[in-house]
Specification:
With 146 residues, this protein is mainly alpha-helical. It has 2 domains: 81 residues; 54 residues, no CATH class.
Length: 146
């Protein structure tokens, strides 16, 4: 394409030159792996002694907020027009989006939990499965002698 096409290209507007696609893809995957793994790792290793779910949720939320803020700062730094307003606007956009997405999923999860409890899904009616499993282990298999 011509030089005018490059300037009006959405890829160029958001990421830069198309010649740097592999570099962009590498850093996108790397940031996804690093920043995407941090909150689950924090969840897995935090408060293993007390197993306080509220503290785990707070630790994961704080870690996620830090990760989103760092990614927003990196995005603001890479943008063409660098000013304090651009930095603040970009970081605020990503932090607000992350907080709203987290709140909406938390509320949706709370409603789903309440619905599942009200409908009685996943609640054991009786221990039929456990008692039949115990009986199966008591009965000798005919395959034992082979």
């Amino acid at each position: 394409g011509s030089e005018g096409d490059t300037e009006n290209d959405k890829y160029y507007e958001l990421l830069g030159k198309r010649e740097n696609f592999f570099l962009h893809a590498f850093f996108a995957i790397l940031s996804f792996l690093i920043f995407g793994l941090v909150p689950p790792i924090v969840y897995g290793f935090s408060f293993s002694e007390s197993d306080d779910k509220d503290l785990k949720l707070a630790a994961v939320a704080a870690t996620s907020l830090i990760c989103i803020t760092l990614l927003g700062i990196a995005k603001a730094h890479i943008q063409r027009r660098n000013s304090y307003v651009t930095y603040l606007t970009t970081v605020a956009f990503y932090v607000t989006s992350g907080v709203l997405a987290s709140l909406l999923t938390y509320v949706a999860g709370a409603f789903m939990k309440r619905l599942v409890e009200q409908l009685g899904w996943f609640q054991p009616k009786s221990n039929v499965a456990l008692s039949s499993l115990a009986e199966m282990s008591m009965v000798k298999s005919g395959w034992g002698s082979y």
